[in-house]
Design brief:
- With about 325 residues, the chain is of the alpha/beta class.
- It has one domain: NAD(P)-binding Rossmann-like Domain (Rossmann fold, 3-Layer(aba) Sandwich).
- It is built from eleven helices and twelve strands.
- The strands form three sheets. The chain has a seven-stranded parallel beta sheet, with helices on both faces. Strands 5-9-12 form a three-stranded mixed beta sheet. A two-stranded parallel ribbon has the order 8-10.
- It is globular.
Length: about 325
């Protein structure tokens, strides 16, 4: 079809949490939207359409090789253009290394590395027509390791490396790549993390960290900053003071941070020896006293559609 008069953004992992908020921020800045997630897109579509954007949805697993070509072809067919690609889809497995399975690593790489690399590469020719932008949503876990998050950290390190390298190459085609590096955010997504080992204990420490204001950032503010940096063509943006500090210290003194994080791991729940697959965190109830400490995270889950998407693990 003829190109739209409005800029167009494709957002993966857009049904809930940060992905939904990034799409909302782009809608408020005048973009029409192509939203992708495995399921649960209707509440997000309705919210965003009410803000004046034209919204097209597509249910797909970005970990599948064919999904990238499908998405780019749909963007060209529906809008005739693409100005922004937000690669946000994610999955997170929480648990000690002995309780993790090979499938956890495969899933993490499929979603967070290939789910970034394939759409970005497929979209480059269409983005080059408009001098487009790519936002690669990675994580502070891609800058320094975190205990009990080994598949997530490995995939995010790969995503950071790819996004940084792609920025060097894509500039020749007039496409800017921004490496978004959030720290802890209050998105409510912790309830849909995949937990293994001592499920209640693992969910407890993980959820508390995402609920403390001094450790985590409000998700709406995070989305505003990420979109602003992307549209400006900023090479990298790190969110939260703690993430800034951690990345700088690890770059300057990696041995020190590795020793410190090794000590932190000793404080986390011990392996259980289970061979059971990881399960959604919300199936492991929090004690009543701990629920009182995690009110901000639960409120965010209600606001940003974390209860509407039945697919486990993703964002």
């Amino acid at each position: 079809m003829p190109p739209s008069d409005r800029p167009v953004a494709l957002v993966t992992g857009a049904s809930r949490g940060l992905g939904f908020l990034l799409a909302r921020e782009l809608a408020d800045r005048g973009h029409d939207l192509l939203l992708c997630a495995r399921d649960g897109l209707e509440p997000a579509r309705a919210d965003l359409a009410a803000r004046g954007a034209r919204v097209v949805t597509h249910e797909a697993d970005v970990g599948r090789p064919e999904s990238a070509a499908e998405l780019v072809a749909l963007a060209e067919r529906e809008f005739g253009r693409l100005d922004v690609l937000v690669a946000n889809a994610g999955v997170i497995q929480v648990g000690p290394q002995p309780d993790l399975r090979d499938d956890d690593y495969v899933q993490a790489m499929d979603v967070m590395f290939w789910g970034l690399a394939r759409p970005a590469l497929a979209a480059l020719p269409l983005l080059a027509r408009t001098g487009g932008r790519i936002l690669a949503v990675t994580s502070i876990g891609g800058k320094l390791p975190a205990p009990h998050l080994l598949p997530y950290g490995a995939a995010k390190h790969a995503a950071v490396g790819f996004a940084e390298g792609l920025r060097l190459e894509a500039g020749r085609r007039g496409v800017s790549v921004t490496v978004g590096v959030p720290g802890l955010m209050r998105t409510g997504s912790t309830r849909n993390a995949l937990i293994t080992g001592d499920a209640v204990a693992e969910r407890a420490w993980f959820t508390v960290g995402a609920s403390v204001p001094l450790l985590s950032i409000d998700a709406e503010r995070a989305a505003r900053r990420l979109v602003r940096a992307t549209l400006r063509g900023t090479p990298e943006i790190i969110l939260t003071p703690l993430a800034h500090l951690g990345s700088r210290v690890h770059a300057l003194a990696p041995s020190t941070t590795l020793r410190l994080l090794t000590a932190v791991e000793r404080l986390l729940p011990a392996p259980t020896g289970t061979d059971a697959p990881a399960r959604p965190a919300h199936t492991a109830p929090l004690p009543a006293w701990l629920r009182r400490l995690t009110g901000l995270d639960r409120a965010a889950a209600q606001r940003w559609h974390e209860y509407t998407d039945p697919a486990p693990g993703g964002r």
